[in-house]
Amino acid sequence: MSALQPANDPTFDNVWDELVYRGLIHVSTDQTELRELLGAGPIVFYCGFDPTAPSLHLGNLVQLLTMRRLQLAGHRPLGLVGGSTGLVGDPRPTAERTLNTRETVAEWVARLRAQVERFLSFEGDSAARMVNNLDWTAPLSAIDFLREIGKHFRVGTMLKKDAVSARLNSEAGISYTEFSYQILQGLDYLELYRQYGCVLQTGGSDQWGNLTSGTDLVRKVEGASVHAIGTPLITNSDGTKFGKSEGNAIWLDAEMCSPWAMYQFWLNTDDRDVIERLKVFTFLTRAEIEEYERLVETEPFRRAAQKRLAREVVTTVHGADATEAVIAATEALFGQGDVRGLDPEILRTALSELPNAKIERGRTVVEALLATNLSTSLSDARRAIAQGGVSLDGAKVTSDDAIVEGTLPGGVSVLRRGKKTLAGLFLD
Questions:
Q1: For residue 87, what are the contacts with CB-CB under 8 A and spacing of at least 6?
Q2: pLDDT in the model for residue 383
Q3: Mean pLDDT in the chain?
Q4: If you average pLDDT over residues 174-180, what whole number do you get?
Q5: Does position 22 have pLDDT exceeding 80, yes or no?
Q6: Given 211, 276, 323, 335, which is the most exposed site by the fewest CB atoms within 10 A?
Q7: CA-CA distance, 335 to 325, in Å (whole number)?
């Protein structure tokens, strides 16, 4: 686990009720049975993650935090990373996936497994366990797969699944490979039921067809009633796609999405969305969330809810030290704190996310204003300096002849025009 020590809200007697409050139940099997199941003794549940990329993203974070909530309630999680399903790929809405090599998939399995492990506890009565579906799929021959598993699936039912029907109605159609994905996921549930007594699977609601493939298969083969929960797909109030920043996914891997970039993403959450984000992505109690809801209504300019959301999520994903460094950089760059005391790596990362330019050491501030597009012409740059509106590394620039030296940690400089327009300078 990260430095953050989460806990469920003690005002809920049953974790099911807390999941409902947080808006995490979009679709499920019998709700009455599920509530009784989760309120009784500990159960084994699982969630699967396919290695279709070298990192998980914010959509996966919904599942990871849901798993942690269930574990904190005393239930035992199985984190499945799909070494076999990752070789096939579940159907996308419009086109076939590119099949990755076995070596690539194996590498991504290891990376995703390490990420999943950070969010679960592997100690105590509710200790988590990691599993890989390649372990039981690889030894299975094609004949055995068709005789023992395939015979329990009806093609008519499989064709009605949303992901399959969408592809059938597209120009690309669907291959048998992707069509069979739901059988493989159903096999996972059956195997985990047999090995560990697993009786609940969680996943995104867009995976509902695959989730019910598993519940149906366990019922047909073992005569047992098992359950599934589909969490909602998170959307923004303005209609834009959640989990994207300037078209790029917000990954959980720090090398693919820096703690700085992730913090800024959450800090920019719309007032209309921030309370729902606090419910889904943090372990704040209902009372704390209600207080932030009041602050959004009465003092929205303070952005207290967004700041708390950003702090909580980045701490959960990257740890407290990285979060504090990012907060210090944010405050220093945008008006508070000392820029010179920042961590060099965080500072360089932050400046790379801002408008920036590479310039030679000894160039003038006027040239830097032009290089970073903070000024549109020489006369505009000189006028901005004359009016006292330009600063370099926190000090006001008073002369057109001022030189950029790159005196900040890491050999960079911060150029500011006005109160909030910043640019980074990387010196050759």
A1: 99, 100, 102, 105, 134
A2: 95
A3: 92
A4: 87
A5: yes
A6: 335
A7: 16
Q: How many helices (H) and strands (E) does the chain have?
A: 20, 13
pLDDT in tens, 135-147: 999 999 999 999 9
CA 409 to chain centre: 30
**DSSP result, 218-234:** HHHHH----EEEEEPPP
C-alpha 365/C-alpha 146 separation (Å) is: 71
Structure tokens at 306: 């967004």
Q: Which pLDDT belongs to residue 241?
A: 79
Cβ atoms of 71 and 126 closer than 8 Å = yes
For residue 35, report the phi and psi dihedrals to the nearest 5 degrees.
-65, -40
* pLDDT attached to residue 336: 66
Interatomic CA distance for residues 337 and 7, integer angstroms = 32
For residues 296 and 376, what is the distance between their CA atoms, to the nearest angstrom?
A: 38
Domains of the chain in start order, with CATH, are 15-233 (3.40.50.620), 235-337 (1.10.240.10), 339-428 (3.10.290.10)
Residue type, 374: L
Contact between 116 and 80 (Cβ < 8 Å): no
How high is the pLDDT of residue 1?
Answer: 39
Cα 129 → chain centroid = 21
Which H or E run contains 297? helix 286-298
Q: Which strand ranges, in their side-by-side order, compose the sheet holding 395-396?
A: 356-359, 421-427, 412-417, 390-392, 395-396
Radius of gyration of the chain (CA): 26
Hey, what are 423's tokens? 């640019």
